[in-house]
Design goal:
The protein is an alpha/beta fold. 24% of the residues lie in helices and 21% in strands. The longest helix has 16 residues.
Length: 325
Amino acid sequence: MENGAPPPLFSFGVIADIQFADKDDGFNFLRTRKRFYRNSLQILKNASRCWEEEEEPERRPAFILQLGDIIDGFNRELSASERALQTVLDEFSSCSAKVHHVWGNHEFYNFSRAALFQSALNSRDRGERGEKNSLEEVYAYHFSPHPKFRFIVLDAYDLSIIGRDKSSKKFKQSMKIITKHNHNKELNIPPGTEARFVNFSGGFSKDQLKWLDKVLARADEKQEKVAIASHLPVHPYSAGPVCLAWNYDKVLSILQSHKSVVCFMAGHDHYGGYHRDTYGVHHLTLQGVIETPPFSDAFGTVHVYEDRMVLKGRGIISDRVLMFP
């Protein structure tokens, strides 16, 4: 107990956009933000040590949410994707909690979708493949770490022009979507309006949205509280316009139609962000490790109670109390 208060029901760790690479510091695509490629591993070491050394069982993370972009795309140019990934996974293994990996754009810069499904970054259990294997090629699943609580991991690059074979139906569908809104020759450059339609973003297929709606409907019936994890944010007040999922509005519509949803957690926008919508759902975008300077940190531990989640941040991550609707 802390100050005589009752302990949480359970706790979990959160971290986003590690983007480790064994290379000198550099800048983002637009050369407006500095990136600390090697230092990101030190921040992960700090996080693993913090999570593992927590003495109170209820406050020690039962699992970790890694919100995507675990290694940087530069690793592919350096022919170091496998080596960099193993370096980061080795550091995660120093913490005994299971890691639930979310896939972001940098996962797809380094690996094909097929390779990711065969890798250690596929943290979905065999029994979590969606109804009748309808989501076999979609990395989406859910799990319950405690009675009356459920977590859903979404695949924000289900529709995307990265990670998909160019001959596939979804690649062609995604190319049609992005070129309808973005007329730039370089698709990493945001269009003047609807800035989210860029190469490094993506969206959710109809099948995945239908699956999400069904999972949330069952959670409503069971009176569960649901937290959702995605690399891409879905609320325009929780992230910059360029960082939103292509069809964020479709996801928002589903979330707002279910009373079970309490929180939506994302990465991608390294500045981070937060908004509580009119339905009481907390949209939390975690600041990125990759742009956190040396001698600071960027991770947190979330303690879950009957009526709230309490985020205890480290470094640039702010503490927050997320009351349930």
